[in-house]
């Protein structure tokens, strides 16, 4: 079997300074990390994706038929090449250029509707002068109200769906990072930080999981779900949402199932506490104050149902606290210490405070790492499923919002502020 080899544009660099050579830690295609010289190759799909991100224009190597929404517009018709401005010429592909028009005749592109003229609002299929790529602009919801111009003065405008998805995924990323940063700092002396961490993390995790279910529906049905079909049917129950995401993952190709969940015992324990917090335990303090039958203190639950099992898995010895026992012996009752552990046990000595600090730090580190891996699993499903979205629907490149999360375990475990 013979065939012409496909050209690949690639570059590498060997950087030497003061006798040292620069190497980078780069993820390979199969997901592992490798040390290598700085290098990169340019792929067509990457080029097209970057153009979409920077301009809002979809580009494909071959001509595409108009999407269904375009043909339903009462004023839609093919556009003659002569009606396009020079930069959108149809050189090399006669008759390939089309546009969307808002009236029975079209003026030059760029003439605005508010100037009282029939206007060609958006080039649809256009071929560049080199005839190498064909830009295609998609929008699933053109409304008659001002016809939602797709291009204004030659600058592409993102679709309403793209904008809403970008806002939602941006909020999810921000909430996850804020929540994890708080959980990493939480300790027995600042227990309010636990509540802030739970609050932000559950908001972010819930949104990512619902986005994954929405994108999955879009892939399966070619349209966004209605309100009744929407992931809102799960409410705030994170355990049910996670089960839904696991189902989405089962429909992915095996090669796309990159990051697994942590061990089931720890995942189930953490998700049970977090799910109950999202449903109602976030109001625990107010519920107790107002006499409502309340669930268990979420901080106490986290430390007893997640923290203690994590500590039982600890292999390294605890930090020596003999210094604290010596202080207690020397000072005696001369110092008043008045704290509580996360489980509500009193702390009245230096030794008890030192031990509580050790346990708080360990649970903060391992508990945050556990939550980061759960988030990474869900994010990987969202990203992989988004790659299967029909080309006629414009969505953000979700991975751009979550680069911090799709890293290996050692990277996630080192994070404290989760700012990258």
Entry keywords:
single chain, 420 residues, mainly alpha, two-stranded antiparallel sheet, globular
Short recap of the structure:
With 420 residues, this protein is mostly helical. It has eleven helices and 14 strands. The model is unreliable at 54-60 and 84-157 (pLDDT under 50).
Protein topology:
Layout: E1 9-12, E2 16-17, E3 20-21, E4 24-27, E5 33-36, E6 39-42, H1 44-55, E7 58-60, H2 68-71, E8 99-101, E9 120-123, E10 134-136, E11 151-152, E12 155-156, H3 160-185, H4 192-221, H5 238-250, H6 264-279, H7 284-289, H8 298-312, H9 322-331, E13 339-340, E14 346-347, H10 350-386, H11 409-414
Antiparallel strand pairs: 1-6, 2-3, 4-5, 7-10, 8-9, 11-12, 13-14
Structure report:
With 420 residues, this protein is mainly alpha-helical. It folds into three domains: 9-42, no CATH class; 46-157, no CATH class; 161-414. Helices cover 42% and strands 10% of the residues. It has helices at 44-55, 68-71, 160-185, 192-221, 238-250, 264-279, 284-289, 298-312, 322-331, 350-386, 409-414, and strands spanning 9-12, 16-17, 20-21, 24-27, 33-36, 39-42, 58-60, 99-101, 120-123, 134-136, 151-152, 155-156, 339-340, 346-347. The strands form seven sheets. Strands 1-6 form a two-stranded antiparallel ribbon. The protein has a two-stranded antiparallel sheet with strand order 2-3. A two-stranded antiparallel sheet has the order 4-5. Helix 4 (192-221) packs parallel to helix 5 (238-250), helix 8 packs across helix 10 and helix 9 (322-331) runs antiparallel to helix 10 (350-386). The two termini are 48 Å apart.
